[in-house]
Fold each of these.
Amino acid sequence: MLVLTRRHGESVRIGQHIRVTVVASTGAQVRIAIEAPEEIGIFREEIFEQVASANVEAASRGNAMVGPIRVVRGHAKNRMGGSE
Amino acid sequence: MGDLISFESRRVGKIEVSEAEVVTFEPLPGFPNRSRFVIMEHAEAAEMAWLVSLEDPDLAFVVAAPWTFFPNYDPPLEREHLAALGIEKREEVELLSIVTLSGKSIFLNLAAPLVINVTNRRGIQVVGEDPRYTTRAAIPTLDAAASAASIRTASKAVASTPAP
């Protein structure tokens, strides 16, 4: 892990396309601005972790629903709309 | 349709699909190395489907169209999510929620829906921060929710997905 000290208005570059800037800090809070390409997901850590644990839980359940399956051809949207 | 892929999933059994049916996801949170999935119809619950990993025989999610159960659902989709998937027309969007089965309760993850571009078959899980929605939204019962009326509403809601 790389640990850096930055002042207000100073930035860190991560690769060519990502820039993180410290825009304010008051007491225990730091405001950062992140510039990154659209396809890069940026999440608050706790939200990401919440989704990750929901996914892990979802994947570990559902054994009761194991049954024969059929391949979906075409959009599930249409299938779920009852146009099969 | 290209070459057939044969895969033995311990969750749903043997799968044979063509390469054209594979959906490539940005790895979902919690599963950093899994990106190739296929959507399979669920033979015993018409409103549910399976999202089956083609890389991990133990990994499969039950998924559902959220509007089937939550007709007023307003997904936390932003322009950047659609752009990231290369979605240009709303007809290209397919949106699914991951289902968690816990005892007799069924939950839908409305906070973090799966969004798929049906044209290029790429997908992401939107990590939403909309306080209206939770990763565990309980649905009353499978039977009650599967009414024709709610399915009709679902189709309408899909059509109102914001254009990029």
Amino acid sequence: MKNVKKQTFSAEHLAYLKKERRGKIFVILARIGLLILLLGMWELVATIGIVDPFISSSPSRVIKTIAELYQGGSLFYHIAVTLKETLLGFILAVAIGTLTALALWWSDTARKILEPYIVVLNSLPKIALGPLIIIWFGTGSSSIVFMTVIVGVVVAIMNMLGGFLATDKNKIILLRSMGASKFQILIKLVIPSALPQFIGMLKICVGMAWIGSIMGEYIVSRAGLGYLIVYGGQVFRLDLVMASTVLLCALAAAMYFLVVLLEKIVIRHPR
Amino acid sequence: MKDMHLLAFKNVDLTYHSKEGETHAVKDMNFDVREGEFLAVIGPSGCGKTTVLSLAAGLMKPSSGTITVRGKAANERAESFGYMLQKDHLFPWRTVEKNLLLPLEIKKRNTPENRKRVLALAEKYGLKDFLSNYPDQLSGGMRQRAALIRTLAPDPEILLLDEPFSALDYQTRLSVCDDVFRIIRSEKKTAMLVTHDIGEAVSLADRILVLTARPATVAAIHEIGFGDTEPLARRESPLFSSWFEKLWKELNV
């Protein structure tokens, strides 16, 4: 039986485990090493003047710029602005997308009617709506949140609808044979079986939310990391552009890992 | 005498419709399932064996004719049936215990007494140590046993088994077959099994119903007469091969 845990391992198995662990440690070290190598080369190339650091910036200048932002008191302000827009847009896109997908699962007719609209909305480059969004929502952060939502929501709908529709037909028959109502089928089967799909959708939507918020700040903004990037580009301060990009990388990665953490908490059964 | 007939098909006809056209699936079907018996249904492949079970369970409505449980229309009595499919269809995100209690939740009968009864069943048939495990940690045979206990959970009057062993490998199939036979006998349940496997039908059933090719209708009903002999013992009996041959010929006319 597979569930019987062995407490004592053979010497061979212990050696195998050791080898596995060594392999893992090597990968982690190689990752860190590669990062140090890239940063070191970047710094070196800028310091000995192969490339003008005015064009390429350099790790030390990036750190200096972040320190300056921090001392000037604006670092956390810009981060907070972008983070708020991104998270709000992300939550709204996920919530609206999932609820819409549920409604489309519930009603076959609604799904058939709305399918072409969703396909068109999905293919449309959302940035084309930029001028409209400014006119409708003004130049405040609500425009940026709206941009974030429309970038993410269609992806959320399509992913979740796919997940809901992929529910095992035979499991539905099983529940129907027990006399289950459509609502019970939804609660007991369709939603729990689409949970892995939901986590997958969250991962995609993290990326989408950052695309949406930065794109929104490019179009219209007075603060935020996207604003700093555009501003830095306009005044040719590439240190600022690079520093903001590095901050973005860190924030996006942190958000992604939060989703991975959520996945570990929510999906406990072995697969 | 009438009470002996738990489930009755009377002049049942079924035509179903799809974009490709209409299919006359079942034609003038008449048979009874007696209280406490094990009825096996065999037929040429594609003749609509599963359709007969869906009709019995009320998942499909006949175009004409009646299906009754103790004289009452079957679709008003969804309570009477326990349906078991080819795969166990245990929900991987639920523990074995939660899987067994699923029918009670669906039927809103998740009372302490009912829970106790189901857990007693699980204990009686060797699932006690696996209750807090997830299905993917169980072997194929154990999973199928869990699926049977889940089917028995709401205390149905009739078990409808749709090729419940076909997803298992041969070795496991023989032992699960024995297992299922024993559990159904000791719980004194009435069962209707649909299968394409003649050997399975002969080793399990009291009576065997042979269907014709589509549109399916009853070609013959045989009293097998093995009594309480268990499946593996039946397979060793000389009667087994003579029944096997007879039925095989009937399916291939």
